């Protein structure tokens, strides 16, 4: 296999702007998110005041043009902020990721001027948050099997169907819904629509009782004869599947950054604990068994960070980043699961209780191997790119 020339000459030094983003996100995570993170996990509810503050800080529309209220930043700035936010609260991270990567980016990149003016500004500023509605009871990894239908009428579409596992399902004000308009065309007959919360026939269903990222709301959404104006279709007729796959490619970078943040947060807590906790008359950090664990954790986290940064750089340079994004998500999610498990082990019995945070981080880590494309799907994507 030839060496990937895309990494040759890559500068890993963060600019002053990137360092400022990192510092701002780190400070926000520790002063605003940390104090109530355990309680939010317990009650399974995210404080809307914090979403408003995230919007005010610019975290909800980081890559959106300033014309629409966004920060106009690059993808690298976004993943740096995602890592810092997720190192404290992965639920906040996924709320931020969906809004930035899937909803705002897709709307700005593919939407019409009318759609941007009417929806993007509220999303970029955090006044409203978005949801990306692709998954269905029988269409998870197989995104081509859309049973939600959009029947074309004179001046609108009639939307019918059910979406599940929808992040921001009840808290969102704007949803991007993928639906089948022309079944005979299979995936080429799929469209994507902007649907507003509160429209007649749009019902928020049950909330999922999840193992991790419990503070972010995940719901089933149901649509019964919802009238969607034709001007709310994004792209040409039949563009929906390409839209979904294009946005998910970028979304994988965001989830990779979330996984990286979870791992980094668990490592930071483990390092601190190892220095403070004593056994046999000395800190456990002086025991070789613990030192080996910390060394392996740090090394894998750094490798994951380089993969995430590479994918972000390629996206910013306008280069093909599909393989890089899949690799970053695959590896970073595995690292997050491994590091958090080791973090619990280092903490011993304390790691098994909520007060020390790492048990929550372990629960949060697992979903990064599943959503926005399972690890198995990432391997298929990587193989497909290698075999082109």
Count of discrete alpha- or pi-helical segments spanning 4 or more residues: 11
- The ordered string of helix (H) and strand (E) elements is HHHHHHEEEEEEEHEEHHHH
- SS-based structural class? alpha+beta
Report how far apart the termini are. 13 Å
Please bin the fraction of helical residues.
Answer: 40-55%
In what order do the strands lie side by side in the largest sheet? 2-3-7-6
Poorly predicted sequence stretches spanning 5 or more consecutive residues: none
- Report the strand count: 9
The average pLDDT value, as a whole number, equals 95
The coarse silhouette is globular
> What is the CA-based Rg, rounded?
21 Å
User: Could you give a short account of the major beta sheet?
Assistant: 4 strands, antiparallel
Taken as a percent bin, the fraction of beta residues is 5-15%
Enzyme class: oxidoreductase
Keywords: FAD, Flavoprotein, Oxidoreductase
GO molecular function: acyl-CoA dehydrogenase activity; flavin adenine dinucleotide binding
Family: Belongs to the acyl-CoA dehydrogenase family.
SSE blueprint and pairings:
Elements: H1 16-33, H2 37-43, H3 48-56, H4 75-86, H5 90-110, H6 113-124, E1 130-133, E2 149-152, E3 156-167, E4 174-180, E5 190-196, E6 202-207, E7 218-229, H7 240-276, E8 278-279, E9 282-283, H8 288-316, H9 322-347, H10 358-366, H11 375-386
Parallel strand pairs: 1-4
Antiparallel strand pairs: 2-3, 3-7, 4-5, 6-7, 8-9
Helix pairs in contact: 1-4, 4-5, 4-7, 5-6, 5-7, 7-8, 7-9, 7-10, 8-9, 9-10, 9-11
């Amino acid at each position: 296999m030839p060496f990937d020339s895309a990494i040759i000459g890559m500068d890993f030094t963060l600019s002053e702007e990137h360092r400022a983003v990192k510092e701002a996100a780190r400070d926000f995570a520790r002063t605003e998110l940390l104090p109530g993170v355990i309680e939010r996990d317990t009650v399974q509810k995210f404080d809307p005041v914090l979403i408003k503050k995230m919007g005010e800080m610019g975290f909800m529309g980081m890559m959106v043009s300033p014309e629409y209220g966004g920060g106009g930043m690059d993808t690298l700035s976004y993943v740096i902020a995602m890592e810092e936010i997720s190192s404290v609260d992965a639920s906040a991270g996924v709320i931020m990721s969906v809004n930035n990567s899937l909803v705002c980016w897709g709307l700005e990149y593919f939407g019409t001027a009318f759609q941007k003016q009417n929806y993007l500004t509220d999303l970029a500023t955090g006044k409203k948050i978005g949801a990306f509605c692709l998954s269905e009871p029988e269409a998870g990894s197989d995104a081509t099997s859309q049973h939600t239908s959009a029947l074309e009428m004179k001046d609108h579409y009639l939307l019918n169907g059910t979406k599940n596992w929808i992040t921001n399902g009840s808290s969102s004000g704007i949803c991007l819904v993928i639906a089948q308009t022309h079944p005979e065309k299979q995936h080429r007959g799929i469209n994507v629509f902007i649907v507003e919360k509160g429209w007649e026939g749009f019902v928020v269903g049950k909330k999922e009782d999840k193992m991790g990222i419990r503070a972010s709301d995940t719901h089933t959404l149901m649509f019964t004869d919802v009238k969607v104006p034709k001007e709310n279709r994004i792209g040409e007729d039949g563009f929906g599947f390409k839209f979904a796959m294009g946005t998910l490619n970028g979304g994988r970078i965001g989830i990779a950054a979330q996984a990286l943040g979870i791992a980094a947060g668990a490592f930071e807590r483990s390092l601190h604990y190892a220095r403070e906790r004593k056994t046999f008359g000395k800190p456990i950090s002086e025991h070789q068994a613990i030192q080996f664990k910390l060394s392996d954790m740090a090394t894998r986290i750094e490798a994951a960070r380089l993969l995430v940064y590479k994918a972000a750089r390629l996206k910013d340079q306008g280069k093909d980043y599909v393989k890089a994004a899949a690799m970053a998500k695959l590896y970073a999610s595995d690292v997050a699961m491994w590091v958090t498990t080791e973090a619990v082990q280092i903490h011993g019995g304390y790691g098994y209780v909520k007060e020390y945070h790492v048990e929550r981080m372990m629960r949060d880590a697992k979903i990064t191997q599943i959503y926005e494309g399972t690890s198995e799907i990432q391997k298929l994507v990587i193989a497909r790119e290698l075999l082109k």
